[in-house]
Amino acid sequence: MKSLVGYCSLMSMFLLGCSTDCTQIKVLLPQASSGVYWIQPLFCEMRQDGGWTVLQRRSGGAVSFDRKWAAYKMGFGNYSEDFWLGLKMVSSLTKTKTLGGEREAFKLHVGEYRGDAGDAIRGAYSGIDQNGFGFSTADQDNDGCHPCIFGDIAQNACTSSDTGGWWYSSCGSASLNGEWHPDGDHIFQSSGLHWRTWHGPVGYSMNATRMMIKSV
After folding, report:
1. What is the pLDDT averaged over residues 106-110?
2. Could you tell me the pTM of the whole model?
3. Prior bond to 41 cis, omega within 30?
């Protein structure tokens, strides 16, 4: 029995070593549980239909997402808690190039939206479509503001108000990497975690977010 258990453990390690993302692990090991898998490393979400690679998770303010380009490129945080996987890693995992390479500022390319929260990436109103825009941070601006005009306010960079790095387009209506706020504490109208086609007004900030990708 011990030999059989040892053999199975060895085979599991071999299969994991052959995997490049969470979908492959789910296919090879259907009963795998959610957790940190040392492939890259990655955090794999195995519940429900499983095989999802988590690229961002926010659940509190312990990990600051007000970071510069190098941090967003390589990733930061704790994979078992709040983290950002890294633009370089996500770009390498997307076979159809949902995310472009660094030369084009990791430009975002998303397909048709499906769900009930609204397509905030393409904007709550016209002129703020974030699809097709590069990633912006405080030290690398690709948001298209020259400047952006909001009423009587002129803004040269969306990161000055939204704080975290994101695929901004005239700032836009989706921003999940901003400053985290507890319930009732939204401070500035643009700070916080937003998906404005789902919940308004602008000052609303979500308590938790998770971004995931999956091979199809």
Report:
1. 93
2. 0.80
3. yes
